[in-house]
Amino acid sequence: MAPSKTALSLSAAIASVAVAISLIALKTWAFAETKSLSIAATLADSALDLLVSASGLAAIAYAARPPDQDHAYGHSSAEDLAALGQALFLVGAAAVLAVVSVRRLLSDEVIMLEAEGTGIAVMLASILLTLLLVLWQRYVARRTGNRVVAADSLHYLSDLVPNLGAVFALWVSARFGVTGVDSAIALLTSVILVYGAFRIGNGAWDALMDRGASPELVAAVEQIISDYPEIEGFHDMRTRTAGGRVFFDFHVEIDGSLPLSQAHEIGAGLKRRILAAHPEIDVLIHKDPYRPALPANDRRSSSEGDDTQTENRRGNRTGEAL
Question: What residue ranges define each of the domains in the chain, with the CATH number in brackets?
Answer without folding.
Answer: 5-208 (1.20.1510.10), 215-290 (3.30.70.1350)
